[in-house]
């Protein structure tokens, strides 16, 4: 029998952690708008890339009548595994409005921020941010949601047992590593940047319901990478996007363009009219952004994969998620992809760096390795170039951004999960009005055009890198990061 290819032999020695399945549960005419978004981890500060990519693995392992014209969420940071990690934005809540920094997450469904009464919330952030605690009594427009109100009943599929008047509607989110957030729902004013002209905005307002975090557990209570909360961009009725749409404040359409060249990028709510993107249907009745993958080719060679690899259902299928950094493939797919990718480089020596498969290569990876193309329903292709499935780690060292899903979780072994690394430098449009998602290769340092459906006017939304000049306070004792868990989809 022939010896295994070098990448596989090296892989056998990787000590990949077996991650527990995560349970993420809640025990809970348009204008356009903008939110200011930046990356969570600092880009290349101190040169301690080993600590960054170690945290990256942990990041992915625990996850998880009128119309609004448009909203703009200016991005900051750099979307590479050895750099910043996740995106977060600043929003304003309450009257008078106060600023909160919240992680942007397409894989979760509620907005929550830390409450002033929180017993285990971090009081400072190693990211150099000033944390703000929401005080229900300090906002003249805020009110506590009781368990007998419609939002609570809709969230839990009916009136809660034992519910009486004036009892708060509680929420609880648990992550597979033991991190958790619990609290109660609040209704209050949200302020965001509404697009009013080319590159121009003015404050827009809406009333939304969100979680007031009363207690944080696990790493959510750690101050090193602390934020004020998480902003879910999922499809559920509890998400901010769904609430804005239900109130006639927004269309359920948003887009992001994550820039790994200059940093930052574009994140906007609204009807994108330029550039045009081809789309593929979202799979119906799924809680996340599931799509139908049809085939994969590497350097023009179509992989011969069994049909069950592409089936969608419980604990299988393909998910698009900008809250995850890496891409996870079923073991059979992973091995075939790797074998073809390295077919012309059998002499490459691999080594383990923070549980990533890495190698030394002095030339251009784009010249030396093939493009991988994922083909989806309705003839939509996702081209992933070598610099997108490899990431540099200094001194001509490259690491593989694809991961073997079978080594992460038994329950997730059949899932294709596509994260930031393969979605970067592409405009990705989530059109929930028509239940499609699409993308195109794009210069994320440029701009897009969004239509104001109230006036019919088309406005330009520029890219942003709001992390430029922002001081990070970097700690080498990097703690594990919280993101949408890979296995919270199960």
TrEMBL record:
Signal peptide (UniProt feature, chain positions): 1-25
UniProt-listed Pfam families: TAXi_C, TAXi_N
Single annotated GO MF: aspartic-type endopeptidase activity
Domain of life: Eukaryota
InterPro entries, per the entry: Aspartic_peptidase_A1, Pepsin-like_plant, PEPTIDASE_A1, Peptidase_aspartic_dom_sf, TAXi_C, TAXi_N
Gene Ontology biological-process annotations: proteolysis
Membrane-spanning ranges: none
Active site (record annotation): 105, 321
Protein name: Peptidase A1 domain-containing protein
Assigned protein family: Belongs to the peptidase A1 family.
Domain Peptidase A1: 87-440
Keywords annotated in UniProt: Aspartyl protease, Glycoprotein, Hydrolase, Protease, Signal
């Amino acid at each position: 029998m022939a010896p295994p290819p070098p990448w596989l032999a090296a892989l056998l020695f990787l000590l990949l952690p077996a991650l527990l399945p995560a349970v993420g549960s809640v025990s809970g005419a348009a204008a356009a708008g903008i939110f200011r978004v930046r990356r969570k981890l600092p880009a290349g500060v101190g040169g301690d890339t080993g600590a960054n990519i170690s945290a990256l693995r942990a990041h992915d392992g625990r996850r998880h009548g009128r119309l609004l014209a448009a909203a703009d969420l200016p991005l900051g940071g750099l979307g590479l595994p050895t750099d910043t990690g996740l995106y977060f934005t600043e929003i304003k809540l309450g009257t008078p409005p106060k600023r909160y920094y919240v992680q942007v997450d397409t894989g979760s469904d509620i907005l929550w921020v830390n409450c002033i009464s929180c017993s285990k919330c971090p009081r400072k952030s190693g990211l150099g941010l000033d944390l703000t605690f929401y005080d229900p009594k300090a906002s003249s427009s805020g009110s506590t949601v009781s368990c007998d109100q419609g939002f609570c009943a809709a969230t839990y599929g009916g009136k809660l047992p034992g519910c009486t008047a004036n009892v708060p509607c509680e929420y609880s989110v648990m992550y597979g590593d033991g991190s958790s957030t619990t609290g109660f729902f609040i209704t209050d004013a949200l302020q965001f940047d509404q697009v009013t002209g080319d590159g121009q905005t003015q404050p827009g307002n809406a009333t939304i319901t969100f979680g007031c975090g009363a207690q944080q557990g696990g790493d959510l209570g750690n101050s090193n990478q602390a934020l004020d909360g998480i902003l879910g961009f999922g499809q559920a009725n509890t998400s901010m996007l769904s609430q804005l749409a239900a109130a006639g404040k927004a269309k359920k359409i948003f887009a992001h363009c994550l820039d790994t060249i200059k940093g930052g990028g574009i994140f906007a709510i609204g009807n994108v009219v330029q550039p045009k993107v081809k789309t593929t249907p979202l799979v119906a009745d799924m809680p996340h952004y599931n799509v139908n993958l049809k085939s994969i080719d590497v350097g023009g060679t179509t992989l011969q994969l069994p049909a069950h690899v592409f089936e969608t259902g419980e604990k299988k299928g393909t998910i698009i998620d900008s809250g995850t950094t890496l891409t996870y493939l079923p073991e059979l797919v992973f091995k075939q992809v790797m074998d073809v990718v390295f077919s012309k480089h059998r002499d490459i020596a691999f080594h383990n760096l923070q549980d990533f498969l890495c190698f030394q290569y002095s030339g251009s990876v784009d010249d030396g390795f093939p493009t991988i193309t994922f083909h989806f329903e309705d003839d939509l292709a996702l081209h992933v170039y070598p610099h997108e499935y490899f990431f540099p780690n200094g001194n001509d060292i490259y690491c593989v951004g694809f991961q073997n899903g079978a080594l992460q979780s038994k329950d997730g072994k059949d899932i294709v999960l596509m994260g930031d690394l393969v979605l970067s430098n592409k405009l990705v449009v989530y059109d929930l009005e028509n239940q499609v998602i699409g993308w195109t290769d794009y210069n994320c340092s440029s701009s897009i055009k969004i239509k104001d459906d109230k006036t019919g006017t088309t406005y330009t939304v520029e890219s942003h890198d709001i992390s430029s000049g922002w001081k990070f306070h970097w700690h080498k004792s990097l703690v594990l990061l919280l993101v949408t868990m890979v296995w919270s989809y199960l």
